[in-house]
Structure formats: structure tokens, C-alpha cells
């Protein structure tokens, strides 16, 4: 009898915990559904201030207190004179109705770490829109790019977002610290200047598509596969059916056409390139890419940011999408598996650059 009582209390506790968890999820979903239309928000980091604080912190360990006090006093005096001069300029500009021209120049820093489907373009488009809304003459944009390429349509859209910056006459520099290959290089060639680290991977101007075929396995186990289409080339190669030479030839033709468009895209933006020499699908390290004209300078993005901090206000712009609590708690593993499967299927019919 005592055992049954203990067991009943144990079950009651379990049910209570389950009900509490379900209640929390329901409330979180309800709150998330009522939380307005905003899908995300901009995170802005002042890299100039961050760099200055880092230097100050280090100098406190390098110099004695007398030196620090003397330096701080000199800097305050210099800052006071600068502010006084700037106040006069602002008052004059205010009378003339030209305040925007007196704003200090800014360098806006973006980061793009591209996946195969270039889903990061959703954040990129928000960041670009925000910058274009506030940018003034003298401002510039630096994109720290890292991507080995992916689906043509995804990287085509990402490149179009960078074209918006160029259309607004904002100088655009793209820094490649690790890799900008294939679709990544498609994005990079939009820039006014491409900067690469010495051992960054650059190039791979080519197109690839690959997929497994399980037709022989299905036949071995007497499994029939049917696929119905309307239109001769609605589907060329397939993962489960028997592929024909005609389908392979058509698919190869589509790859060549995509490669041609890719080369035309680069030729238009970097006309000085010996395109037939570099559009072979090969990749090169930064120093080699510089010699071939694929990049303009050998530097890291850190060099560019530190240099800019001396003359401009450097702001890192990052758009962060809001995630509901329910999305964080549920189905992450299943969603990842679905994405892998979908990408495998997409690769069979969609070229990868």
C-alpha cells in the first residue's frame, strides 16, 4: 500500500512538471505572437571607441602614473580645442542649413559569413538598407567576407545587395581574411577594392553540381520509382530514376551557361582580369591572387579597421533576427536534418558557384 502511495506521488510530480513546461511554452508562444511586427534589430558597435579603450588599457601597463596623467591632460586640451572649433563650424552650417556636411565621416563595417544557400542575405539586406538611410558624403563601407560559395540565386541576391551600395556612390571595400571562393568571389568583385590576407583562398570561378544516384540499389531490391513531369526538361538528372545521356548533356549545357553568366558578371566588374586564365575553377592563395589581379592589396581586415580608426568613426553594423523561445527549444535537430536533405536534393538540380 505504501509503495502504491509513493508511486502515485511520483506520478503526480511528473504530471505537474510536464503541465508546467507546457504552460510556459504556451505563454511564450502567445507573448511571441503579440510582440509586434519587428523581426529583428540592429546591433551597433563603435569600433573606434573599442580600439581606443584597448590601447588605453595596454598603455596603463606600459607607463607610469605621471606619464598617463600628462598624456591625459594633453589629450583633454587637444579635444577641447577640437570641440571648440567644431562648434563654430556646426553653428555656421546650421545658419546655412547644411548640418549634414559637418558630420564626421564614418566607416560602416559589415560581416558576411555565407552558407551554401546564402541565407545570411536576409540580414545583409537589412544592414545595407540601414546604412543607405544615414550615409553621407565621405562615408565608406567595409565588408568582411567569408564564403566558399553556394547556390547561384542566393549569391546572386547577395551580390545585388552590394550593388545597392555602389549605386549610392559609397566606396566599398571587401576584405577576405579566410576565403572568398566561387559565389564568395562573385560578391567580392562588386567592391571598389578587394583586400586579401596572404593565405586566404580566392577564386574558384567555376560551377559544379553533383548528386548520388540510387537507381541500381532500388532495382536490386525490386523497388520501382516513378517520376511524372510535363515539359521535356522539367527534370534532367534524378537521384532515384535511370539517368540518360540526353539528360546529362542538357544538364551539362545548363552548367556551361551558368559559368558563362558568372564570367560575364566578373568581366563587367573587373575588366582588367585575364578571365580565361583565372576562370578555370581553380583557387589561389592571397599572394597568388594578387599577382593574377583577383585582389588589389595584401592586408587583413584588422589593418583596415585600425587605419580607419585614426580618421573616421568606425561602426560595426549587425542585424540580429529575433527568435521565439519556442523556436529555440523545439525541433532544432529535426530542422537541421531536413535542411541537409533539402540541400542534397537542391544540389542535384541547382548549380553551385
From TrEMBL:
The chain crosses the membrane at residues 7-28. Residues 2-162 form the Peptidase S49 N-terminal proteobacteria domain. This is Peptidase. CDD domains: S49_Sppa_N_C (cd07023). GO terms for molecular function: serine-type endopeptidase activity. Gene3D superfamilies: 2-enoyl-CoA Hydratase, Chain A, domain 1, 6.20.330.10. One of its GO terms (biological process) is proteolysis. Residues 71-98 are annotated as: Disordered. Keywords: Cell membrane, Hydrolase, Membrane, Protease, Serine protease, Transmembrane, Transmembrane helix. It comes from Vibrio galatheae. The keyword Cell membrane applies. InterPro entries: ClpP/crotonase-like_dom_sf, Peptidase_S49, Peptidase_S49_N_proteobac, S49_SppA_C. The keyword Membrane applies. It is found in: Cell membrane. It holds the Pfam family Peptidase_S49_N. GO terms for cellular component: plasma membrane. Residues 166-314 form the Peptidase S49 domain. Belongs to the peptidase S49 family.
Amino acid at each position: 500500500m505504501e509503495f502504491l502511495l509513493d508511486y502515485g506521488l511520483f506520478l503526480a510530480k511528473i504530471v505537474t512538471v510536464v503541465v508546467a513546461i507546457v504552460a510556459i511554452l504556451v505563454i511564450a508562444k502567445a507573448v511571441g505572437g503579440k510582440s509586434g511586427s519587428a523581426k529583428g534589430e540592429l546591433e551597433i558597435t563603435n569600433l573606434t571607441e573599442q580600439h581606443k579603450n584597448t590601447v588605453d588599457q595596454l598603455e596603463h601597463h606600459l607607463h607610469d602614473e605621471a606619464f598617463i596623467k600628462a598624456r591625459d591632460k594633453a589629450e583633454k586640451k587637444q579635444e577641447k580645442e577640437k570641440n571648440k572649433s567644431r562648434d563654430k563650424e556646426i553653428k555656421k552650417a546650421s545658419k546655412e542649413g547644411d548640418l549634414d556636411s559637418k558630420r564626421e565621416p564614418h566607416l560602416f563595417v559589415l560581416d558576411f559569413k555565407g552558407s551554401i544557400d546564402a541565407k545570411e542575405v536576409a540580414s545583409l539586406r537589412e544592414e545595407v538598407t540601414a546604412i543607405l538611410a544615414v550615409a553621407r558624403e565621405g562615408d565608406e563601407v567595409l565588408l568582411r567576407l567569408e564564403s566558399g560559395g553556394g547556390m547561384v540565386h542566393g549569391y546572386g541576391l547577395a551580390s545585388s545587395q552590394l550593388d545597392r551600395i555602389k549605386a549610392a556612390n559609397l566606396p566599398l571595400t571587401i576584405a577576405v581574411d579566410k576565403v572568398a571562393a566561387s559565389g564568395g568571389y562573385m560578391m567580392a568583385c562588386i567592391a571598389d577594392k578587394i583586400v586579401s590576407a596572404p593565405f586566404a583562398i580566392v577564386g574558384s570561378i567555376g560551377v559544379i553540381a553533383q548528386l548520388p544516384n540510387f537507381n541500381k540499389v532500388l532495382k536490386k531490391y525490386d523497388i520501382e520509382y516513378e517520376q511524372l513531369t510535363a515539359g521535356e526538361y522539367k527534370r534532367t538528372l534524378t537521384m532515384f530514376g535511370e539517368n540518360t545521356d540526353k539528360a546529362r548533356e542538357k544538364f551539362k549545357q545548363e552548367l556551361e551557361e551558368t559559368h558563362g553568366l558568372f564570367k560575364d558578371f566578373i568581366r563587367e566588374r573587373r575588366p582588367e582580369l585575364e578571365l580565361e586564365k583565372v576562370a578555370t575553377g581553380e583557387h589561389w592563395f592571397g599572394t597568388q591572387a594578387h599577382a593574377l589581379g583577383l585582389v588589389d592589396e595584401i592586408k587583413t581586415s584588422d589593418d583596415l579597421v585600425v587605419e580607419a580608426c585614426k580618421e573616421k568613426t568606425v561602426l560595426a553594423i549587425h542585424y540580429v533576427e529575433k527568435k521565439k523561445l519556442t523556436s529555440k527549444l523545439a525541433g532544432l535537430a529535426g530542422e537541421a536534418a531536413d535542411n541537409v536533405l533539402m540541400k542534397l536534393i537542391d544540389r542535384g538540380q541547382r548549380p553551385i558557384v
